[in-house]
Amino acid sequence: MKALDIKGLAKTYKGGVQALKGVDLTVEEGDFFALLGPNGAGKSTAIGIISSLVNKSSGSVKVFGHDLATDIVNAKSCIGLVPQEFNFNQFETLFQIVVNQAGYYGVPRSIAKERAEKYLKQLDLWDKRNSAGRELSGGMKRRLMIARALMHEPRMLILDEPTAGVDIEVRRSMWTFLKKINEEGITIILTTHYLEEAEMLCRNIAIIDEGQIVKNTSMKALLATLNVETYVFDIASGANKISIEGFETRANDDQTLEVDVLKKGGLNPVFEELSKRNIQVMSMRNKSNRLEELFVRLVEANQAKGTTNE
Amino acid sequence: MSNRNMTALYTIWIKECTRFLRIWVQTLVPPAITMSLYFVIFGKLMGDRIGPIDGSSYMEFIVPGLIMMAVITSSYSNVSSSFFSAKFQRNVEEILVAPVPTWVVIMGFVGGGVARASIIGVVVIFVSMFFVDIKIAHYAVIIVTTLLTSILFATAGLINGIYAKSFDDISIIPTFVLTPLTYLGGVFYSASMLEKVFNDFWQGVIQINPIYHMVNAFRYGFLGSADVNIILALSMLVGLNVLLFAVAYRLLSTGTGIRT
């Protein structure tokens, strides 16, 4: 079943800014889906329309078959939203915030209190249940918004940059939690600027730029299109003098060598050449995240196309 | 009403009540102090010189008007500031993403304003008992007028909150519209006193002030006599309530001030 089915979605703000230019997008039930794009690409507008915070100009949005225009109650009940900005009442306690959120969806108070305990405990916030929202750290606030979004037990969770500004430890615990609830059956749509996060968590991906989808495929298929990877070798010395036949090389300084390696070619010839020259390799790493590489290429290609069309 | 809507309504209402009770020093205490000062200065010190009005002492005459003044101010300011704060902190989005019908949102916020106004009404009656023996002629008129008035001004406060873009915007209407209308609404004087000060035109203007009718209907509940037709006053209240509810419904359902 399609968890999300968007057709021809367009949005023009007052003042004429065209944020979405006819977006078509499908997310299958149970998917962990990445919606990526540079700042101002239209991600948050699309999420705003799906979650009824932004009025669309045209197009249709169906959530688990419920059309937002004609069956809004059922459509809204299927969605849990974790927005980019903190949007809870800073003076209410965590317990009040999550219990009230369940109440807006019609969850009786006794059940809401049980769920509040369950989700606040799962997100390590139970000890803070009587603290006001404003007293929390950034990472706690992000986790609170996830707990709040789950209170009506939605079938689909939309997370708009959920790990922005949180430390790596909290980020990893959030990844584990999101993976777990996805395995339990919740469809997840994620936007993020941490592309390794999307690469690691998501099975399918759409890249949006200038209000249009420029790529919509599986993560595996997208990564397979990347045929060159750049490796950085930290060596003892002599990087300036090295050139390896069949490979493009660059020396950042005397101890740092960058080598572009074709996916099919492998790394053995590089090591052989370095060994032959008695150059000691201290360490080696990927220059950048693979998805990041592809993302930048796709966005640049789209923007170049836009410039040519103008 | 479905169980889902009933729960949503109860949740918004409880949230609103919790808010004004949490900050009770700002929301419940000031009217008690202000009204005590009015009773001392206008009722006691000046009232003795003014003498009786329509067979009641001046203190007895102003008590209903002062209660009504507190009810109007508190119901309006409760909803305007609460709704604007929810917009400002963006926590109104918690309600917008949920399947809460527009009329439930209006009733929840307005219900909060009515609750605060009712508590303040009781507090001011209690304070007034230190200054005068309260006599009540018609309980039903007092309850109906209080409810209709607080619903009306809570809805007006909601409309103000919907349109407001800054904190200044929620103080402009109370300062420049509500306060003058209340002071010219017969809180401190009767219709017979108007004839001595205003010409026919201004008397006419004052009598189309809805607050004038509300204050007098409320006074009728206490004293059993009033300057206005009680049926006309209550009908006006019902009509204005229907009108403002329709306006608030239209604004919220089209997303004015809350959706882009």
UniProtKB/TrEMBL annotation, chain A:
It comes from Brumicola pallidula DSM 14239 = ACAM 615. Residues 4-235 form the ABC transporter domain. InterPro entries: AAA+_ATPase, ABC_transporter-like_ATP-bd, ABC_transporter-like_CS, ABC_transporter_ATP-binding, P-loop_NTPase. One of its GO terms (molecular function) is ATP binding. The keyword ATP-binding applies. Keywords: ATP-binding, Nucleotide-binding, Transport. The keyword Cell inner membrane does not apply. Gene3D superfamilies: P-loop containing nucleotide triphosphate hydrolases. SMART domains: AAA. This is Nod factor export ATP-binding protein I. PROSITE patterns: ABC_TRANSPORTER_1, ABC_TRANSPORTER_2. It comes from the Bacteria.
UniProtKB/TrEMBL annotation, chain B:
GO terms for cellular component: ATP-binding cassette (ABC) transporter complex. It is found in: Cell inner membrane; Membrane. Its main location: membrane. Signal peptide: none annotated. Residues 22-255 form the ABC transmembrane type-2 domain. The chain crosses the membrane at residues 21-41, 61-79, 100-130, 136-159, 171-191, 230-252. It is a multi-pass membrane protein. Keywords: Cell membrane, Membrane, Transmembrane, Transmembrane helix, Transport. It holds the Pfam family ABC2_membrane. GO terms for molecular function: ABC-type transporter activity. Belongs to the ABC-2 integral membrane protein family. This is Transport permease protein. It comes from Brumicola pallidula DSM 14239 = ACAM 615.
